[in-house]
Amino acid sequence: MATTTPFAAEAAAAELPAAAAQKPPKPPKSEPSALVQQAQATVEPLLRDKLDPRLTYHTLAHTEYVVKQAHALADAAKLPAKETEELLLAAWFHDTGYLDTYDGHEYKSMARAEAWLREKQVEPARIEVIKNLVRATHRNEEATTELEKMMVDADMSNLAADDFRSRAELIRTEWELALGKSYSNPEWAELQLNFMLAHKYQSEAGKDRYKKAMKANIEDQRDYFKKTEKKAKKKEKKATDTFAEPKRGIETMFRTMYSNHMKLSDMADKKAGMMIQLNAVILSVIITYFGAKSSSLAVTGGTSFIRNPILAVPMGVLLLTALCSVTTAILSAQPDVTSFKWLKRNPEIATNRRVNLLFFGQFTKLSLQRFQDGMRELMREKDTLYNNMVTDVYYLGEVLDRKYKLLRVSYSIFMVGLILTALSFAIVLAYKM
Questions:
Q1: In angstroms, rounded to a whole number, what is the distance separating the alpha carbons of residues 30 and 156?
Q2: Engineering a disulfide at 148: which of 106, 136, 186, 362 sits with its beta carbon 3.0 to 4.6 angstroms away?
Q3: How wide is the angle at C-alpha 140 spanned by C-alphas 136 and 146, nearest 5°?
Q4: pLDDT digits (tens, 9 = 90+) for 19-43
Q5: How far apart (Å, rounded) are the C-alpha atoms in residues 53 and 181?
Q6: Does the global pTM surpass 0.70?
Q7: Which domain holds residue 274?
């Protein structure tokens, strides 16, 4: 049986710190230069106090995050102090253009950076480098140098952040407030997914730092998009199912509507019939009376009516009332078929929303073949069937509207005419007395 000697134990203990010493220590973070600290002191109050409050994403917090990521990339790439300073200066100024404009703010940021750097008496060559770093963050500009690629990667590092979705929601809110662009949850999730799939980190340091994290975020966003899309479809189905699925409820609704329309139409025809009969009797009596009194062959042979022509006024009013009332009542009661003359000339548009294949006034304009084709399509597609039923109810309503308007006119004429007849007759009596 093997045993461990004290010397062996001491040797093993000595090997542990030696192994730990072999692990490379984390490189210390470089300190920003004095010029970078001055840029920070200049930019921070501007972005904190003067930015449009509608900007919920491009805030001071975003700029500080980009500066932090740029600094990390510079340290990872072991950039010289001069290049690190240029990268951090560009990071601090890259969004200051939002103080002036939204679209194309990068160019305004370049101008602000240039003006400030000239005040600090920075060499023109370095100013151009920093301006080009800011320009590279524009969506239509291309990053050519490794430093420009680092700047773009730092600006887009939010795609690899743990809270990338909450940052995207800030952009969504900003676009809605500042640009008036609104997106539904599925639309926004799809937009973000497509943007992430199209984006590529460019610098070597950026690829090492963000590529793996962004890939995981893409998978997460893909799952989130599927969930939101599924939820939206379920919500849409729930909203539209009340129109397509409960067949019994829909059929009851249409059955009730058709029944009510038929009852109203029957009531209108009965009222019109009563008015026609009543006025026909009045007309018959008046005409008979006038004929009897005006004829020399009258049984009484009296001429009292001729000797009192003033009585013709109330009788004339009553006659005119009965004539106008019966005319409008007849117009109300006469059959009314809604049809379209153009349908006969253009049978190929038989599926038009204005055409109702369930109504004889329209389908008789078609040939038998056209009608059969239209009915087959009607029976195949549920939406088309419901559309035709709705159209049928609409035109039934139009016919009812016309009937009741004419009927109302008929009753109004009859009522006003009777009042005028009574008044004129009273005046005649008072005059004779």
A1: 22
A2: 136
A3: 30
A4: 444 444 555 678 899 999 999 999 9
A5: 17
A6: no
A7: 248-432
